[in-house]
Amino acid sequence: MMSNSVLFERLVKSAERIARHTCYPGKQQAVEQCVEDVEDLSRAGRITAAQSEVLLDILLGDCREPALPIPLNA
Asked: Most exposed: 34, 36, 37, 51, by fewest CB within 10 Å?
């Protein structure tokens, strides 16, 4: 089994690659699966809560659907 720090480094690189990837059909589903995997790893004690937060921030921070612009005269 790989060490926690090596696992975390690999997960960060993978999460960044997924989050930076241009939008494509199915990207949101891929991100959602990654989020589930991160939560499972955290529950199983394979990563810490802090590591989980870092990974979720990477995945959800860069991959959220853009907000609709608010009209200036609203």
From this structure: 36
